[in-house]
Amino acid sequence: MKRGKGAVYVAEIKRRYKNKVYTSYLLRRVYRENGKVKQQTLGNLSALPLEAIELIRGVLRGQHYLPDDQVLQKRRTWLHGHVAAVGAMVRSLGIDQLLSPEPSEQRERLVAMIIARVVAPHTKLATTRWWQNTSLVNEPAVAEATEDDLYEAMDWLLDRQPDIERSLAARHLAEGGLVLYDLTSSYVEGSHCPLAARGHNRDGKKGKLQVNYGLLLDPQGRPVAVQVYRGNTADPKTVADQLHKIKDQYQLGHVVLVSDRGMLTSARIREIRTVEGIDWISALRAKEIQKLADGGAIPLSLFDERDLAEIDSPEFPGERLIICRNPLLAEDRARTRRELVDATEALLGRLARRVAAGQLKRADKIGQALGRIQNRYKVGKHFICEVSEGHFAFRRDEAKIKHEAALDGIYVVRTSVPAASLSTEGVVLGYKSLALAEQAFKTFKSVDIRVRPIHHRLARRVRAHILLCMLAYYVEWHLRQAWAPYLFEDEHPGRHEGDSPIRPAQRSEPALRKAATKQTPDGETVHSFHTLLELLSTVTRDEVYIPPRPEVAPFYLVTEADPLQQELFRRAGLEGVSTTRRQKTPA
What we know:
- Helices cover 39% and strands 21% of the residues.
- By secondary structure, it is an alpha+beta fold.
- Among the domains are: 7-65, no CATH class; 328-405, no CATH class.
- An 8-stranded mixed beta sheet has the order 7-6-5-8-9-14-11-10, with helices on both faces.
- A hairpin with an 8-residue loop joins β10 and β11.
- α2 runs parallel beside α20 and α4 (105-119) crosses α17 (459-482).
């Protein structure tokens, strides 16, 4: 007779008797005898407490339990998962290598600052406080860093900006491809920064000084370069610097620069034409569109059946003009004009009543009050006003309103790109891709990156701060792509209503279902970017020790991640964070 050793396990047996269920726990052994599988009951454990039964079952499965005198104790807990995921993406993108191929304290601090800017943007001093509660502080270069150390790291970063941007351009800009460029401003606290000045305010912060900064992006919206200007620098004056970067620093023979009508003025376009290998896509200003319409170059009957048409005009030699009409934009402009005209008319009526009551008599005083009203909503041109001593009257200029309304929803895209290289629809989509630059600026200024308010006084620190924000946005852009299935963002954007590039892009069916159900197809909860980071932060790193065993060095235990957290880590480029790990605590 041949009998194997076999395996021992706890069997749970349920029996029903008179509508009651009785459970027995038997200790059994499975073995082979003469090639047949048999079982042997070794004992009945049913009289034991369930806790004892579970302990026996765990031991038989290979689990190990410490004696009472060797219970683990936590010494310290750090938030870990969110900074680990962002850090993994930083390294998978090679940001650390972009900063410097050689390890250094400066590089480690900058990597930590980029992670902090994505996870919890603060001032530099507050950052040194914040990361004390995260596993970033387990790196000695980070743990010991002061506010002054971070400033030194920023100076170190700024010296490497040209090399960083050249590397990003080599990754993402292609010969003959599109390059997006736009400019914005952010307000500055204090009055000592030499770059701060009063200019065209985009933040709605009246009375604040500001700095301007222009961003170069690839056609998908990834940032490639950023340049900071004094706050009163006119947008068109920054274009020459971008041409220099593209041609001289990035060594690109031919690209198509895409920028808005306020940037690529006629003077700038004449300048671009002198640079070999630079084409461009922009749009006409409202006055230029009105001039074309008055000259009969825009036949409005075209839009009865189509929403775009390409024309030539002697006013713009060597250019392709694509006339576009967006009915949704037309409705929006008509509604806005109606509301502003009504509001201005109410103010004019109030002024007329004041004059009639004798509160305003002098013509110059009446004219001053009228000027303030006309400038308030910028629609004073739609009223005909009569001013004299003790007299004021007004009426709507219906003919002018009708004349302007005829062009509602119409815009004209202009380009130097030949038709053989880019179709009419491609030109329009290229211009509309500038929305990616607007999205970048929105993220810069929101709680995601929090570029503002700017507290730095030195010009080089302001430039380094905005470069740091650009690198943080670069990392966040890639994280959003990697985590798109679990975010409310559309994973398949770009479809236009009626396949027209003029109509707004429609959300895909999967995105609509996510928005409606708040769940992914697999039943996971859909998150915002920051609630995903908060979810990951529940994976902690604990420093533990055994009090009665001082000879055993303290070590780290990392919380076991759930399946969703594991998938998020994997998509960020981090494997194995779900396992328990032993490692020495840094000295």
